[in-house]
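Researcher: I'm comparing several assemblies side by side, and this is the next one on my list. It has 328 residues spread over two chains. Same procedure as the others: predict the full complex and return the structure.
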Amino acid sequence: MKRVAVPGIATVVILAIVGLLIYGVASKDSSSSSLDNAVQRGRHPAAPGADRELPALHGGGTHRLADYRGKVVVLNFWASWCTPCTDEAPLLQRTQQQLGSQGTVLGATYNDVPGDSKDFERKYHVTYPSVRDVGLKLAQDYNTHALPETFVIDRNGKVVAISRGQVSDRFLANAVQKALRS
Amino acid sequence: MRVLLAALIALTVVSPAFGKAANFADVEDEVMCVSCNVALNVAESPQADAERKYIRQLIAKGDDKEQVKRALVAVYGDNVLALPKSEGVNWVAYLVPIALVAVLAVALGFGLRRWRRREPPDGPQPPELSDADSERIDRELAVFDR
């Protein structure tokens, strides 16, 4: 009995660690691929993290994605230290103006010091609202690990387009039109 | 004059600017570059540079190490700390290495006990050395001691 006990326990421990490792890797990849796959197939999944309350970059309040239900939301993860974010800021600002009362661009700062984020907004004349994604909770919901990334959400809170990387004029125009139609 | 002196002493005690400000290197090796997932003191990225700039600003303001860490957590979340806080599920990070060492020690103990109690190998055993042979070997070895 004793002869079997020690190797048996060691085997169980090793199997448990390997199982946890496999689970960790599998669960990390599945959320991003399922969201991206669903959007690619035109299924328009519900926007993740819609009820997550995040502090506003300006003022003391909080914002939730769900607060914008009925409007198109262009959710953009950005940071002041991200070079492509500076390149796409004017395009996002133009989109904000074009959306008018039909929607908004909503920035989510990613690992950024609030003072630096505000300097960025001043420098690039950004007027759309941003939230501070402290601890990257919202970014994890969207499996965002690199900047910039943009998710276009329609009036019903469904994701209709994803850009993992710097957005183009064409992508934004098509995605916003699609969101406004649905 | 006494009132002025007392006020100066009080200001020295209360104001963080007069307290022990953090040492940059001391903070840098205890926090993470949150975007690259390595310790900040070995990280090379624009985000790491922004994080270092923020730490320098806090130190220039007179913050001590704990104040700097609290400010970093407020901006980046708990992940910025190289060592997780010892609360809740984070205890696992401290307990697992201890448990692993304990399991290894127990396994080593069992192994040693089994090794010491092992039976002599099967098969023919070498014959006992007779007194005569033993004396002869001693004599022949003594030649080398001269």
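Model: For your comparison table: DSSP finds five helices and seven strands in chain A.
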